[in-house]
Amino acid sequence: MLDRKEAQERADRFLAVQSRTWPSSNVRLDLEYCFIEGDRFIAPYDGIGFLDHGDEDARLGGNMPIYVDLNTGECGFITMADVDDFYARGLFG
User: Fold this and answer.
1) Which of 6, 5, 3, 13 is nearest to 66 (CA)?
2) Read out DSSP for 25-76?
3) Count of other CB atoms within 10 angstroms of residue 72
4) Which residues, 6 or more positions from 30, have their beta carbon under 8 angstroms from its beta carbon?
5) CA atoms lying within 13 Å on the CB side of residue 18
6) pLDDT tens-digit readout, 9-32
């Protein structure tokens, strides 16, 4: 089973690979809002300009956080159903 640090490293690598094809790949995990839920590490991310300087023009919209399966190390993006569930339980925002 991965610990939090290992999961964060996997999420960082996944984001780096995925963002290469995006119009702006200047993104980073928002470590303040990462959490573990069950057997998954959930990692929101945003534009570096927003995270470091509050630049609203650098803020992303509609981006789905990354999940890392703590048992297998598999990474992906959470679903809209996950987002709704996490908001309903107060885990986001």
Assistant:
1) 13
2) --EEE-GGG-EEETTEEEE-EEEHHHHHH--GGG---SPPPEEEETTT--EE
3) 10
4) 43, 44, 45, 46, 51
5) 17
6) 999 999 999 999 988 889 999 999
Q: Is residue 8 within 8 Å of residue 31, measured between CB atoms?
A: yes
| Predicted model pTM | 0.92
Question: Residue 52 is which amino acid?
Answer: D
Which strands sit side by side in the sheet containing 75-77, from one edge to the other?
Answer: 35-37, 40-43, 66-69, 75-77
Per the document, the length of the chain is: 93
Burial of 7 (C-beta count, 10 Å sphere; 0-12/13-18/19+):
buried
List the structure tokens of 82.
Answer: 């996950």
**pLDDT level of residue 39 (50, 70, 90 thresholds):** very high
